[in-house]
Amino acid sequence: MFEVTVSDHMMIAHSLPGEVFGPAQALHGATYVVEASFARPDLDDDGIVLDIGRALDALRAVLSDLTYRNLDEVESLSGLTTTTEVLCREIADRLAGHVHDGSLGVAAGDLARIRVTLRESPVAWASYERAP
C-alpha cells in the first residue's frame, strides 16, 4: 500500500458540553496540526498516489472553513460535540468530497483510504480513517 500525507494546521475555539470534559466545557482554544493521508494499493501511470499540490490545496480549502472560528457557531457542525475525534471525521468527510468532485485528480475507486490525524500536542492525537 502506498500512502501520501500532507499537513497544515488550524486554530479554533470551541466548548465541549458534558461533565466528562471537565474544564474543557468552557470556551477554549486549540491549535491542531492536521495530517491528511491518502492511500492506494498501486501507483498511477505517473508513479504517484495523487498530486501532492492538489492534496495540499484540498486540505487548505477544508481547513479554511474552520480556522480562526468558534466551532460552536459553525452551522455545519451544529449539534456535534467537536471533540478531536469528531473533527477528524468531519475533515475526512470533507476531503472525500474533494475526491468525488474531481478536484484531487484521482478517482475514488483508485484510493483505498483517507486518514486524518489531528495532533493536539506532541503527546496526544486522534485519527479517523474512511474509504474515499
Account of the protein in words:
The chain has 132 residues and is α+β, with helices and mostly antiparallel strands. It is built from two helices and five strands; from the N terminus they run E-E-H-E-H-E-E. The protein has helices at 52-64, 84-100, and strands at residues 2-14, 28-40, 69-70, 113-121, 124-130. A five-stranded mixed sheet has the order 3-1-2-4-5. A hairpin with a 2-residue loop joins strand 4 (113-121) and strand 5 (124-130). Helix 1 packs across helix 2 (84-100). The radius of gyration is 15 Å and the shape is elongated. The two termini are 15 Å apart. The mean pLDDT is 96.
Kindly list the characteristics that best describe this protein.
132 residues; alpha+beta; five-stranded mixed sheet
* Major sheet attributes: 5 strands, mixed
Order of helices and strands: EEHEHEE
Which residues sit in consecutive blocks of at least 5 with pLDDT less than 50? Answer: none
Secondary structural class: alpha+beta
Through-space gap between termini: 15 Å
Name the strands of the widest sheet in spatial order.
3-1-2-4-5
Mean pLDDT: 96
Instruction: Name the helicity range.
Output: 10-25%
The proportion of residues in beta strands is 25-35%
Radius of gyration: 15 Å
Oligomer type: single chain
Instruction: Count all strands and give the number.
Output: 5
